Amino acid sequence: MSENKEPHAPKFVYDFTEGNKDLKDLLGGKGANLAEMTNLGLPVPPGFTITTEACKVYLDSGEEPAALRDEVSAHLDALERKMGKKLGQADNPLLVSVRSGAKFSMPGMMDTVLNIGLSDASVQGLAQQASDERFAWDSYRRLIQMFGKTVLGVDGDLFEEALDKAKAAKKVTVDTDLEAADLKKLVTTFKKIVKKEAGREFPQDPREQMDLAIKAVFDSWNGDRAKLYRRQERIPHDLGTAVNVCSMVFGNLGPDSGTGVAFTRDPASGHQGVYGDYLQNAQGEDVVAGIRNTVPLAELERIDKKSYDQLMKIMETLENHYKDLCDIEFTIERGRLWMLQTRVGKRTAGAAFRIATQLVDQGLIDETEALQRVTGAQLAQLMFPRFDEDAKVEQVARGIAASPGAAVGKAVFDSYTAVKWSRSGEKVILVRRETNPDDLDGMIAAEGILTSRGGKTSHAAVVARGMGKTCVCGAEELEVDTKRRRMTVPGGHVVEEGDVISIDGSTGKVYLGEVPVVPSPVVEYFEGRMHPGADDADELVEAVHRMMAFADRKRRLRVRANADNAEDALRARRFGAQGIGLCRTEHMFLGDRRELVERLILADTEEEREASLKALLPLQKQDFVELFEAMDGLPVTIRLLDPPLHEFLPDITELSVRVALAESRQEPHENELRLLQAVHRLHEQNPMLGLRGVRLGLVIPGLFTMQVRAIAEAAAERKAAKGDPRAEIMIPLVGTVQELEIVREEADRVIAEVEAATGTKLRLAIGTMIELPRAALTAGEIAEAAEFFSFGTNDLTQTVWGFSRDDVEASFFTAYLEKGIFGVSPFETIDKDGVGSLVRSAAEAGRRTRPDLKLGVCGEHGGDPESVHFFHEAGLDYVSCSPFRIPVARLEAGRAATQSAGSDHR
C-alpha cells in the first residue's frame, strides 16, 4: 500500500488471507470464497482481489481509482516474494490468472484470462522450469487466444479456425495430440491474427498484459451478455465485479495433471455421492466450455487416488462449513491438488427441495434456513408436466441429464433463430455442439437446450440450471452441423432446422417428434392423488410436502384463490386455498346466459329490465350456493359486475355484417338492429376508464341489487342446510367514498329484507376493490364505509402507469425489457416504488380509520414470488391468486415470514 495514502482512503485490494465468505459485496463471490478457503487452510494458490468498489469507480468515471495501481503493485510484489519469482521473469516466470467475480454467480458472462506473464522471452523459461516444451507453448497459445478475444476484441472463431487447421494438418482430432513444434507455429499464427484484427502487436510486457486484463474484466460487467443475464436473473446492475489475480497452477502438464469441477451432491437430483467431471492434461476452461468430453469424477480415484482422497475430504469440509451443496473447481499439477474456487452451487428445482430437507435431517440447518434454500419459482418448475412414459416414442439419443423438465419444440441451430422464432410464437429447442456465453439470448428464448458435447459442469448445464431450463448435454451420438443447420442421429436420419424434437432433462433422452406430457407428480400430490412414498418421484413429493408444512407453520399471510365456480374452488381448496379472494361474477353471465344479459341491456322500460333481472336472479343464486358449499367455512369474496356492458354484446363488425346481409336479403332483423344500436350507444373510446364497476351499479337500477340479493339468499339457503357460508361483497372501481356509501346503503337494505324473509341472521361483510390511484389516495375516507380492501393490482398498475395492458405488452414491453427500463414487467412483479407505494399508503390510511380493516390483494401479483414478499412487508392479511399458483404463494409467504437480512441463495 502506498505510504502517502490518506489514512481513511478506501482499500481497493485485499490479499486472499485478508477476506472471508461474508465479504461478497466487496470481494465478489469468488474472491470471498477463495479467502474463506485460505482461512480454512485448504490448498489455494496465493493471490489477491481487487474490490467491487474499484470497479464501480472505474465504471462511473471511466478511469481506475488513482490509488489502485500502487495497491496492485504492492500486492504483486508481496505475491512475487511469496512465490520466489517475478511476473513474466524470463528464466523463471510467475504466471497469473485474472478472473471476474461478482457478488452473484454469473457463469461465463464476464471475462477471464489465464497464463498472464507469458511472452516470447518467458515461454522458454517456462519450458525449462517445467521440463516440458509442449506445455509451455500450449499455455502461450491459450494466453494469446483468450487475451485476443477477451481484451482486444478479436473474433474468437478466427483462433478456433486456425486451431482446427493445425489439427487437420497434423491429422489429429484433439488439441492434446499437437506437439510442441505445432503449437509454436500456432502461436505465430495467433499473433498474426491479433496484429491484423486488433491493429497492434500482442503485448510482451507482462504488467501491461495484467493491467489490460483487469480493465477488460471491469468492462465486461457492462457487456451485452452480462446485462442480459442480470436482467434474466434479476441481479442489480449497480453491484460491479471484483477481479481476482491468482498465481497459476497448471493442469496441462501431462497425464499426472488435470482439472475438474466437483459437486458435494448431485446438482440435478440432490442425491449424495461423487459428482463432477475431470479432464486430464487440461486447463479449467476446457472443462466448463464443454469442448472436450470429460470423464466422471469417480474415475479420478483410479487415475490419482491420493488427490482423489484429499479432494473427498476437502469436499466434506466445505459442505459442513457452508452447510450447503458446494460447487468446486480444482486443478491437479503433477499430483498436487489445488483449490481454485468454491461457491454455493446452482441446483435444479428438485435438488433444491431434496437438499434442503436432507440438511435439516443432518442437523446442519433448521426449518427457517431450509425455507431460504428453496423458492416459489422452483416449486412452479416442479409443477410443470413431464413426458408420458407409456407413450410410443422414437428415442434417437441419450445424453447427460443436466437440467430437468420435458421440452418440445422445433430444432434451431443458432441463438438468433431461436430468438426470432420464439418471438413469432414458435416453441424451439436450441441445438449446439456446445454453448458459450454468446448463446445466452437464444437459451433464454428456447424451451430447452441440447448439446452434443459437455457434461453437468459445462456452460450449457450450469446456465440452464440457473434459469430452470430443460437441458440435455453431451449427447455424443448426435452429429450437429450448425453451418448446414441440421443434426444427424444414429441410423443416419437427419433432423433439419424446424423439425420437432423432444428432450427429457430428467433422463437425458432425446426423441424425434412431439412426445405427449402428463401431470407432474407434485401436481398430483397437491391434487391428493399421490402421497409420499419410497421411489424417486415420491421422494421429491416427500421433500415438497415437508417444505410446504414448514412454510404453512411459519407464514403470516393467508392465501386465497381467484375462482369463479365450484369446480375451480374445490381444486383451489385441494391446493391449500384458505378462501376465495376474488369471484368474478361477470363470468357467470356468459355462455347460455348471454341472451338474458342482452335482454337487460336492450330493455326500454323498467318492466323489461326487472323481468330480465328476475330471470337472472335464481341462476346467480345457484352459482353462489355451489360456491359456498365448495368453500364451506372459508371466506368467499364476490366482486359485483365490473366490466363494461358492451363486452356482453356481439362484436360490432360481426353484427354490422349480419344486419347488412339481412337487409340485402330483406330478412327480418329487428333484434340484430336493436343490438347494433345498443352496441353503438354503449361504445366507448376507452372502455377500461368508462362505464364499468360501481358506475354500472349506480346508473343501471337493480343490477347490483339483484346480485346482492342472490348472494344473501344463497347464504341463507346454505345456513338452513347447516352450512357455514362466509360471503364478502366487493364493490369494484370505487374512486370516492360517496359511491361506496350509496351502494352500501342499498345492499344493507336488501340483506335486511332477505334476513326478514328467511328468518336467518346473515353476516355479509361489504368492502371495495382499490384499483384506482384516487381510491388509494383517499383510502382513509373510503375505509369509513368499507370493512375490507382488496387491491386490484392489475388495474392499479394500468392506471398508475397509464398502460393498457392488452396493447402495451405486445407493442413496446419487449423493447423496454431489452433496454433495461424494466427489469421485469410491472404486470408480472409489482412496481414497488410506484404501485407499491400506493398500496402501502392506502393500507396505512385505511387502518388508521378502521384498525380492524381486512387487507388483501386479488390481482395476479398475488401469486408472484417477489410480490408476495412485498405484500407481507406491507402488512396485508392475505393474497389471492389462480389455483395453480396457490402452492407458490404459500411457500413464498412462509419464506417472507422467515427471511433474514442478507440471506440469499441465488
From TrEMBL:
Query: Which EC number(s) does UniProt give?
Result: 2.7.9.1
| Gene3D superfamilies documented for this protein | 1.20.80.30, ATP-grasp fold, A domain, ATP-grasp fold, B domain, Phosphoenolpyruvate-binding domains, Phosphohistidine domain, Pyruvate Phosphate Dikinase, domain 2
Molecular function (GO) terms for this protein are: pyruvate, phosphate dikinase activity
Q: Which cofactor does it need?
A: Mg(2+)
Please report the stretch or stretches of sequence annotated as the Pyruvate phosphate dikinase AMP/ATP-binding domain: 68-293, 301-350
Which part of the chain is the PEP-utilising enzyme mobile domain?
426-508
Q: Which residues form the PEP-utilising enzyme C-terminal domain?
A: 542-894
Arranged from A to Z, the UniProt key words for this protein are: ATP-binding, Kinase, Magnesium, Metal-binding, Nucleotide-binding, Pyruvate, Transferase
Which InterPro entries does the entry mention?
Answer: ATP_grasp_subdomain_1, PEP-util_enz_mobile_dom, PEP_util_AS, PEP_util_C, Phosphohistidine_dom_sf, PPDK_AMP/ATP-bd, Pyruvate_phosphate_dikinase, Pyrv/PenolPyrv_kinase-like_dom
Under catalytic activity, the entry for this protein gives: pyruvate + phosphate + ATP = phosphoenolpyruvate + AMP + diphosphate + H(+)
Record-stated family: Belongs to the PEP-utilizing enzyme family.
- The name on file for this protein is Pyruvate, phosphate dikinase
Q: What gene name is listed for this protein?
A: ppdK
